[in-house]
Amino acid sequence: MTPKKQRAQSNNQTCFKERRIRLITSRFGRIFKMRCTTSCKNLVYDLLYACEAQAKSLQYGRDMEAIARTEIEKNINKKIKTCGLLINPIIPYLAASPDGLIEDNTIVEIKCPFSAKNTLNAIDAVTNKL
To answer: How much is the pTM?
Structure first.
């Protein structure tokens, strides 16, 4: 997938199809935390057939991402470039979709938790374990 096609990935059908045929880093935790006694039926079903989630909390995160990116850029005095889906060139069934890149060697993952939407700053959110 070319970088141009990767941008605006949360609304991009091509990117969604590309993600669907790969193991994405956002799913690694669920895979690695599985016990050997746990059935993998639900996980396999989710990986192969699950539709894109539309939860209110996910929409909030998408809506706030640009605002958060701008704040991060101000705080670190660097530009964050959007990057889309990054496919491992050696193991092409592995991929990641970070929220941005800084100077092509640092990935950025932006989190805007719905549970912290009414806090004034990140310190309050962490202090209150949101």
So the answer is: 0.70
